[in-house]
Amino acid sequence: MKTPGIYRIAQVEALTGVSAHALRAWERRYGVPRPSRTGGQQRTYSEADIAMIRRMQELSQQGVPLARAAELVLLEASTPGEGSGPRIALLTTELSDALLAFDEPRAAAAWAELFDTLDLMTAFERVVVPLMRDIGTAWHEQRITVAQEHFASNFVRARLDQLSRQVQPLPGAPTVVLACLEGEHHEIGLLMLAVMLRFQGLRTIYLGQDVPDDALIRTVEDAQPEVLAVNAGTADGARHLPGVVRALAETAPLTSVVYGGGAFDAEPSLRIEAPTAHYGGPRLLDAVALVNELGRSRTGGAV
Fold first, then answer.
1. In whole angstroms, what is the distance from residue 235 CA to residue 228 CA?
2. pLDDT over threshold 80, residue 4
3. Helix (H, G, I), strand (E, B) or coil at 231
């Protein structure tokens, strides 16, 4: 039985930031949200409706088309919340077991099921990121072999590359150069960021692992992108950031630098403060939002 609504549409607009016009359009076109009606046929919204609106908004900001976002929201609403955790845990376990057993067909099937079940951001944040973190920890603690870690990383890297090739940038979209700072070889997080940005229509120039400072600076000078996104998992890699930022402030002053990775997450003293440099935060969602905001601010938000 549906929970009675207690919020008027103006209140929902204030709470969520979604306009009343958009709320009515979503309801009419996609069936989300599903407000109650008073005797005078005024819409009233429950806490569950507000949660659906916020989830719809979140998915839209991640680049999910509104029709697909509505399908996901309605699916999640029809599934008991306590069931989602075990489901995600099962998918994670299946993928992990297959990767550590060098079973590529089984891993491919688990990967496909994962992205059939979850949207991109949820799959990345709740499965892929913690899975690769756990595999990396197991390798460092010698609970798995270097061969197992390499197989898992190469499998995930190849699938992320496939995902990124499924979409093309929109005309006039901001350009983002992505690179691992010099000496850095862990690129999975950066690849996921690149995939999310491409699915949102941005143009990406992906440079990959261990990019020397001079090569990175020269590429940005030539491309003059709206954003440079870099990552570092170690303190040694993170120490290359200030020099890159200083150089680009002179030769690419309109390029914003977004930096992130385990080193900056774990050690705040490695973060720098500069007009053009911005810490992306520990969550992929935060980095995606920041790169979008900075990139589109230079293109006038046209795409």
1. 19
2. no
3. strand
Whether the CB-CB separation of 192 and 174 falls below 8 Å is answered with no
pLDDT on residue 40: 67
What burial class does residue 230 get, using C-beta atoms within 10 Å of its C-beta: 0-12 exposed, 13-18 middle, 19+ buried?
Answer: buried
What is the pairing mode between strands 256-260 and 175-180?
unpaired
- Distance of alpha carbon 47 from alpha carbon 286, whole angstroms: 25
The residue assigned the tokens 């549906």 is 2
Query: From CA 26, how far away is CA 19, in angstroms rounded?
Result: 11
Q: What b/e sequence results for 131-163 when a residue is b if at least 16 CB atoms lie within 10 Å of its CB, and e otherwise? A: bbeebbebbeeeebeeebbebbbebbbebbeeb
Tell me the two tokens of residue 171: 């005309």
What would the pLDDT profile of 124-171 be if each residue is shown by its tens digit?
A: 988 999 899 889 888 988 999 999 999 999 999 999 999 988 888 888
pTM score of the predicted model: 0.71
